[in-house]
Every structure is written in C-alpha cells, then in structure tokens.
Amino acid sequence: MNITDEMLYAAAPEAAERWLDTLPGREDCGHDFSLTFEASMAPILRRRKRRWKTLALLAAVIAALAALLAFGAGADRPDNYRVYAAQEDGMVSYSARPKGTDLDLPFRPLTPGWTPEGFALDEDRSTVQGHAVFTYRSREGTESRYFSVEQWHGQEQNGLFAGDFTLEDVEVDGEEAILIYSPDTTLSRLLWTQGTDVFLLTAMGLEREDLFQIAENMKW
Amino acid sequence: MLLYLQAIDDPEDRTRFEAMYSAYRGLMFHAANRILQNAQDAEDAVHLAFLSLANCRLPPELGPQARHLAAVTAERKAIDLYRARVRRPETELEEERLPGCAPPPSDGTLAGAMAALPPRYREALLLKYYNGYSAAEVGELLGTTAANVRQILARAKRKLAEELAERGETV
After folding, report:
1. One digit per residue, pLDDT tens: chain B, 171 residues?
2. What are A42-70's pLDDT values in tens digits?
3. Which of B4, B77, B158 to mutate to test the interface with A (most CBs of A within 10 A)?
4. Cα–Cα separations (whole angstroms), residue B65 to A20, B20, B29, B69, B116
5. Which domains does chain B have, with CATH numbers?
6. What is the C-alpha to C-alpha distance for residues A115 and A118, in angstroms, rounded to an integer?
7. Could you tell me if A26 lies within 8 Å of chain B, comparing CB atoms?
C-alpha cells in the first residue's frame, strides 16, 4: 500500500484529535506550578529581544554551557567553598556544598518559623527522598508576592539561570551564603547550607530583610 | 534546569508565545506528568518544552494545532527526560511502552493508525502533516536533525502501510 502525502494531510487532523483526546480536557488540566517553575519562566516571558540578536544569544548560551561545564569541573572556585556563584554573559551559575554528606542522617524538611505578614503556605512538596519545597504566597494586594524554600539533603547542588543579577556574599546564621538579586524584577534568591542540607530561597516581591528573617528562622 | 533561550523577538511572536503559555501549560504538565509520574520532573519537562517553543514558528492563533504542538513538545521533553533519568536509551518503537504512552485504540483507519503509532513516529508525522512544519523545524522540536526526521518519517510511513495492510485496509 502506498501512503501518499495527500492521504496523510487529510488524515492528520483526526489523528491529532484522537491523540489529544487521551489527555485531560482544559477544565481538568489545572496545576499549581511551583515558584521555582514560575521564577524560571519569568525572564523568558518578560524579555524582548530583536531577531538580529538571536545568533549572539545562541553564542551566549553556548558560552554559558561551556562555563557550566568548566564550573562543574571546579574552575575558578575556591577549594573550601560552601556556596559559590558567578555571573557571565547574562547567566548566573551557582553551586552549594553541604558540610556533611552523611545520608544515614534522616532527612528532616525544615519550614519557615517566620513569614512576612499576609503570607500563608500554598504548597508543600516534601519528599522522603531528601528534597522538599515549601511555597508561600501573599493574598494581599494585587501584586504577585511569593517565596519558596527548597531543601536538598546531603548532596551538592549546581544550577544555572539567565538574567541580570547582582551577587553578594552574605551570611545566614553565621554561615556563608550568597544573595542573588535583581533590582528590576524584585526576584531574588538566597543560597546557603546548614549541616548536611542545601537551601535555596527564591522570592518575588520580598524585602531583603525578609529573606534573612526567613532563612534564619527555619524550623523542624 | 534553569536555562533560557531568550530569543523571542517579534512582538507578535511574543504574544503568541504568551497566549500558549497561559492556555496550555496545564495541558503540557499533564502530558509530561503521565510519563514522568513526578510533578517536579514534569515541570522541568514543561520548562524545556517552552524553551523549544520559544525558538519555533508558532501557530497564528490558539486552537487545535497550537494545542497539539504544545502537548507534543511537552511529551517529547518528558520522554527525553525519562530516558535520561533511567539511563535507558529506548528505541523509537519501545517508547510506546513508557508510562503514559499507551496509544489510543486504532480502528483500522489511517487516522486511527497514525494516532496509534509509537510516540516519535506520531510526533514527526503530525508535526509535519498537521502542524505544517518542515523536516528542519520538526528536528528542532524533537531535538534531532532534519536528516533524521526524514528517516523517521519514512519509517513511520512504512509502519503505517504495514499496519493497514495487516488489517486489509485500503485507506
């Protein structure tokens, strides 16, 4: 049997519809995306670039990937770092290494013992596999304000994201930490370690003082 | 994975992209989650899917073609993530045995047989014959080369012909 292009063009709409029917309808497709997801999508939804910049962007991405590979290999990092971040060509790469990697210690997800006024727990994604994410949102006002605290147990964390950020060495409970913030978007991240765990606080619309209050009041 | 290709330049493209983001991200999550069975991994797949969509020619308006494009892109990223996580490079035909990839029942028609193809075959065929993309564009979306897409399309057509011949259909 010879199947021609015309036959395929004619049958394709029904075939697509049949496959789409295996997915839930729009009303059943609700999902509250995590703050990490929303924060990662924010730059791509905000930014506008000109077409002639595409090649330059591609080059930047390749350079960033190369930087990440070098980063993974430990280039330019101090030997005894706990947290480290670097910015190049509009990409921020970061790494955090907990003091201990003793996975015999049980994983204990910590939650903020203090939150800014008006914030309430929106989502709890704690797992027994050594990873937890707690997201809090403010229901006050029209501006979107939220934060999430992500915790990993006993393992180094590396990441990369785009955007123009300022990096600042800071401390959380006397331990080295890195504050990554953007004056333009009110998006900020605070990266620190505590014992065998790595923490990443991602916040939108919070004051600098709030970030440290949250980070220094994590409770079990 | 927090890496963006911030390459959406044309305001019209941006509007289309934003419309797809608002309308289909939930659908994309479900398309990915039924394969990955893990919300965080599924969100990663959706993120990767939007990175691909940010660099492709989008349908002019929301509708079945845009919905299909969104869901297929998320499915492909989810399958790729699944394969990477379990370190098992399934072949194209074995992909249909992945969680959430069971095909809809085929009724012996060409449309039914197309819908029931293994994911990679179906995706390539429908992106070309339903969404109207070139082999190069399909390759961008599926993460492969145009030459490989042409091979996939040829194999998909052969498989379709075999399936229909087995059923004694003449289309």
Report:
1. 333 434 455 666 667 788 888 889 999 999 999 998 888 889 989 998 998 888 888 888 888 999 999 999 999 999 988 877 765 555 555 666 676 667 777 777 899 999 999 999 999 999 999 999 999 999 999 989 999 999 999 999 999 998 888 776 555
2. 767 765 344 444 555 556 555 555 555 55
3. B4
4. 10, 11, 18, 6, 18
5. 2-87 (1.10.1740), 95-166 (1.10.10.10)
6. 8
7. yes
Radius of gyration of chain B from Cα atoms? 16
Token couple for A171: 């401390």
Instruction: Please enumerate in sequence order all residues whose Cβ is within 8 A of that of A4, keeping only pairs 6 or more positions apart, or say none.
Output: none
Task: Look at domain A78-219 and name its CATH class.
Answer: alpha beta
> Nearest Cα to A24, choosing from B53, B97, B100?
B100
Residue B165 Cα, gap to closest chain A Cα (Å):
7
ipTM for the complex? 0.86
**CA angle centred on A155, ends A152 and A161, rounded to 5°:** 70
For B86, the token pair is 């379990």
Q: A94: distance to nearest CA of chain B, Å?
A: 11
